[in-house]
Design goal:
Helix content: 25-40%
Strand content: 15-25%
Largest sheet: 9 strands, mixed
Strand order of the largest sheet: 11-10-12-13-9-14-15-16-17
Structural class: alpha/beta
Number of strands: 17
Number of helices: 14
Radius of gyration: 26 Å
Length: 450
């Protein structure tokens, strides 16, 4: 099938004019963005998904009608009805989804998507294997246009992705996180981290082999006992998933505030578990260079919102200080995640971030703050291609020789998975027992609890 528009005939693998689809996608996307802005300026918020879809279909139909009128005026045959239907479907798929990327986002077996140019695509699957993926666009320019249009439409505010703003962080409608670079990389680069929101309870970590039932009960009791917890690990080890599972052990009566660079925890998906919650997301500066709101500023704002627990999705900068202060000044049971290669390595990482804050804390001061703020560190790693809890460390609440005193309760065993290593302090053990942990079962299984 051919498609002729103003005298030009173009083929693509679907039998429709790919350039026409790109042009319509761009013009309709711009019109939708303008409609969202006008709706918000009128005080009515963004268009609902159903209203957006209806408007997009009307805009495509209007553009196709104008094309037909131009074709008749220039003596060319317009698109036939079947071709118009195919073009409409392709444009709407690009608008409401991400065109050829969408099937990858819909595949539950895919964990991460790495794109370097339109044709070089690699997929990390949930079983640990890595495979080559299909091309996601006809050209690099087409890929840039696809992601840039999505950036303008998706999210809480319009975002740019162009030579003036070459980096993009974006939460997709399904909750996945997209990061993209252009101009500063050899080819446009897109990385998509998939999130499995079906995994949201500690019991599911047991089912997935992340930890055993004994450790799961320990962690659940620690959450109910309002321990301040840091979830640590490398990239892709399941920190956010584990953090989400721990959060969902918190009683529904508590007021929670989550703070993230890009929304990933997905607390809004569990309204029945946390009816009283707020989700805060950092914001970059607009095109005029104003309006930015950092994680550190969000944490400080959250403390004025009467939270019972504060959760920071990932600490990696100046937000470390207000987060530690929140943990040590009455917001017991708060949590965060952090990149670290071991549970003990978390202390050095926190000291490094604190030294980078405007206050430029020295390690001795940071360690005093950590000793008084943090109760438990849960470290995750890869063991034989599977995510596992490798270490759990209790912070004893004191500093000796300038170093935080800690107690590794679970340590990496022969396979790398965490195994019981030492009992917790008596006070912490009593708190855990008060909140449902079966110390007797633990003692019978391992012989060291008492």
């Amino acid at each position: 099938m051919t498609a002729t528009v103003t005298g030009a005939t173009v083929w693509n693998q679907d039998g429709i004019d790919s350039d026409l689809v790109v042009r319509l996608h761009h013009s309709v996307g711009e019109a939708l963005t303008a409609a969202h802005v006008a709706h918000e300026e009128a005080g009515r918020g963004r268009l609902s998904p159903s209203d957006e879809r209806a408007l997009a279909r009307k805009l495509v139909a209007d553009d196709l009608r104008h094309l037909a009128e131009n074709a008749y005026a220039e003596g060319h045959a317009p698109l036939d009805e079947a071709t118009e239907a195919m073009v409409t479907a392709a444009v709407l798929d690009r608008i409401h989804g991400l065109a050829r990327l969408q099937p990858l986002l819909d595949d539950p077996q895919i964990r991460d998507i790495h794109i370097s140019g339109a044709q070089r695509v690699w997929l990390n699957l949930r079983d640990g294997t890595k495979v080559r993926g299909p091309a996601v666009a006809d050209s690099d320019d087409d890929l840039i246009e696809l992601i840039a249009t999505a950036a303008r439409r998706i999210g809480r505010s319009e975002r740019r992705w162009d030579h003036a703003q070459p980096e993009l962080n974006l939460q997709l409608p399904n909750g996945d996180r997209l990061h993209a670079l252009m101009a500063v990389s050899g080819r446009p680069t897109v990385t998509i981290r998939r999130h499995d929101f079906d995994i949201h309870r500690v019991s599911q970590l047991v089912d997935g082999g992340v930890c055993d039932e004994l450790l799961a009960n320990f962690l659940s009791a620690a959450v109910r006992a309002r321990a301040n917890i840091i979830v640590a690990g490398g990239t892709g080890t399941g920190k956010t998933t584990t953090l989400r599972c721990l959060i969902n052990e918190i009683p529904a009566t508590e007021r929670l505030i989550t703070i993230e660079d890009s929304l990933e925890i997905g607390l809004e998906r569990f309204e029945e578990l946390h009816p009283d919650h707020e989700t805060l997301e950092a914001r970059e500066a607009n095109t005029e260079g104003v309006g930015s709101f950092s994680l550190a500023e969000l944490v400080r704002s959250a403390l004025r919102m009467d939270p019972q627990r504060v959760i920071v999705g990932e600490v990696r900068g100046a937000e470390v200080l207000p987060m530690l202060l929140a943990m040590s000044q009455g917001n017991d049971g708060s949590m965060c995640s952090i990149h670290a290669d071991s549970s003990k390595g978390v202390f050095g990482r926190l000291a490094m971030y604190a030294a980078m804050t405007p206050e430029r804390l020295i390690p001795d001061v940071t360690n005093l703050l950590v000793a008084n703020a943090v109760d438990l560190i849960v470290h995750l790693g890869w063991v034989s291609g599977e995510r596992r809890v490798t270490s759990v460390r209790e912070v004893a609440g004191t500093v000796e020789g300038g170093q935080v005193v800690s107690n590794e309760l679970w340590k990496p065993g022969g396979t790398g998975s965490g195994i019981p290593a030492a009992p917790p302090t008596s006070d912490f053990a009593a708190q855990l027992e008060d909140h449902g942990f079966d110390a007797g079962a633990h003692a019978a299984a391992h012989g060291w609890w008492r």
